[in-house]
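Amino Acid Chain and Its Fold in Token Form
===========================================
Scope: a single protein chain, as residues and as a discrete description of its fold.
Amino acid sequence: labelled as such and written in the usual single-letter residue code.
Position: the record begins directly beneath this header, with no further notes in between.
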Amino acid sequence: AYQENINLLLERLRNWQLPSTSTICDVGAGTGNYICAVADQFADGAIYHIDFDARMNELAQQKYLERGIKNVQILQDHILNIELPESSIDLIICINSIYAISPQKSVLEKAREWLKPQGRLFAIDFGRKQRTLDWAIYLFRESLKSGEVGRYAKGLIEAREVMKQNRQSTKGQKSGRYWLHSSDDFGKSIAEAGFEIDELFACYR
């Protein structure tokens, strides 16, 4: 399910045909999987990795070093504390991060300021209730289907930090700190921030 979202981004990039010199920004970049997936396409540009979680950034930096990705700048702070030039970014990626970064209206408005007039926003946001056990069962079931239970067990060990973050998301939703929304609610908020929406649909299972 996670890989489907990465493939969705890669598919859109083929359609958008952004030049290799583009400047891109991943807001809430986490452990850097999306930047790793697209870095080769923007080898001649600049990449900003934004996340306020030190451990996530540490894991991402390790991945970037292992893959020889040298044009990434990690900015460890809240997006509203970061200053980038207006109309300077060609592509902004926000994967399951906006719901956790409040106030969402200000976050989206800042992203719109950074984006070039013909720039692109690729956003996926987890708006329904988080159920970590449900995901674990889903992953185990899919592993049984593909005969990769060993890989599943190995993945659980490697994903301890991500699972920790998921548990925090569950707590944040229960407390009202994290934003719960439908796809339509999400689209409305994006449009109100000044974006023109090309596509809006539910994904992620």
Strands lie at 23-27, 46-50, 72-75, 89-95, 115-124. The first helix runs from residue 2 to 16. The mean pLDDT is 88. Helices lie at 2-16, 33-38, 54-67, 104-114, 132-146, 149-158, 160-175, 183-192.
